[in-house]
Batch of 2 targets.
Target 1
Amino acid sequence: MKKAIEGIIFDLDGTVYLGDVALPGAVEAIAALRRRGKRILFVSNKPLEPRGVYAAKLTRLGIPAAETEVITSAYVLGRHLAGAAPHLRLYVIGEANLRAELRGHGLTVLDELSGQNPQEVIDPTGIDAVVVALDRTLDYRKLNTAYQALMAGAAFFATNPDSTCPVPGGAIPDAGATIAFLEHLTGRKLELLAGKPSPLTVQVAMAELQVQPSRCLMVGDRLETDIRMGQEAGMVTAVVLTGVSSRADVALLEQPPDFVVETLTELTHCLDGNSL
Ligand SMILES: [Mg+2]
């Protein structure tokens, strides 16, 4: 028999909410799990807002959450680098929140040049690492700066590997697309990934939950990030079909998730039926 589940990790977009609407069953299921004493953590690959903003959004949607119950790829990267490599001079392709998050961890984030010539870049020898994230102000100068720095030997980090970011009505290009661009351009490979499915996210999540991975249930809508991370960490996994994955996608997996649920309403039944 499997061990009892003590901690439950939820992805956010496509799992708990979509846009500004809680997905069916999310409010009730999370409340029921909390009543049973389960520890809950929300994990997002989005580096666009501070943890407190996601916690406030959850609370507004009827899922009361504290800032400490949310981790983002920006938070994971900042926390990891602050411990492992606090003196690196970082060149960030990313938005204001990521820069603030990294600086908040005591890290050095270089300022962009302000001149008009897009070919003019920061001296690449002054850049120790390039950090790639979703950046809706991405331009030629940023790509060129990252290119010059990577060719000069800078380390190659990213917040998250997603090629696209879901938005109401479709999707927009995300960090994965920029990573692929730079890998193609330089022949380099990404060296450090913070967000799901990275073990760094597992480490931070376990530290926050104070639970062993085998006592955790990972719930998400994306197979290659949420489910893969849970499986590689030895967690029980559940895919919910309210986001990007379908039953047909799940059927293609060599190692399927432990549970496939249409909505989070079914999640508590899974725990009941399996002595979890
Ligand atoms: Mg998702």
Target 2
Amino acid sequence: MILQVKDVHKSFQVKNKELKILKGVNLEVSQPQTLAIMGESGSGKTTLLSILAGLEPPTSGEVQIQGTDLTQFSEAEMTRFRGENVGIIFQNFHLLPQMTALQNVKLPLELSGDEQAEQKAIELLEQVGLKDRINHLPLKLSGGEKQRVAIARALSTKPKLLLADEPSGSLDIETGEKITQLLFSLIAKYQMTAIMVTHSQPLADRCEVTYYLKNGQLES
Ligand SMILES: Nc1ncnc2c1ncn2[C@@H]1O[C@H](COP(=O)(O)OP(=O)(O)OP(=O)(O)O)[C@@H](O)[C@H]1O
Ligand SMILES: [Mg+2]
């Protein structure tokens, strides 16, 4: 089993009120595939992705990735597990601003102790068409270029599970389309399972399965 989500609930405490966002999310992914998660703004998509990434604990319920229960990890164990098994593309890229494109992509490889980190990072940046931008700081990259660095970084350790929050969200249609094509070709190449949160119907149409987050639950 690649991913198993069992009855996940998530509430936020705001002032004295309990805000229930996820109310029993279930999901099973048993073979590499591409999944889209759609749903209204505020429905809890990013919240769910953060829980799947182990960045935030569920209020209750269970998340297993490759048979391992995330909730039993300490923070250090979680960071390590994530580094080796999960790639994440965030809604706003989250590149480290003081690091060049190359350093951003190289970092997860170095953290995993890969001795060929530099060479692999350069190859990845070449694959996403940024050979001439490897020494640029994020500030000096365009939106689409930043997105491509984020993709290269998320794929650097060849994780089996890729989580992406609006991977083409803030780009113009043409650039978004190019980046979508690039992303799907890399997902197929590395045989990854990808879960993409999106408002874009064309992006969802490219995925094998589409779920809707509604009333705190996933519907197909
Ligand atoms: N840390 C938090 N504390 C309190 N409320 C939160 C917190 N994080 C998220 N929320 C609330 O939970 C709801 C779901 O947020 P989330 O970011 O998951 O929505 P989303 O489906 O990703 O929306 P969008 O499509 O706009 O990105 C929102 O109403 C948000 O205000
Ligand atoms: Mg969101």
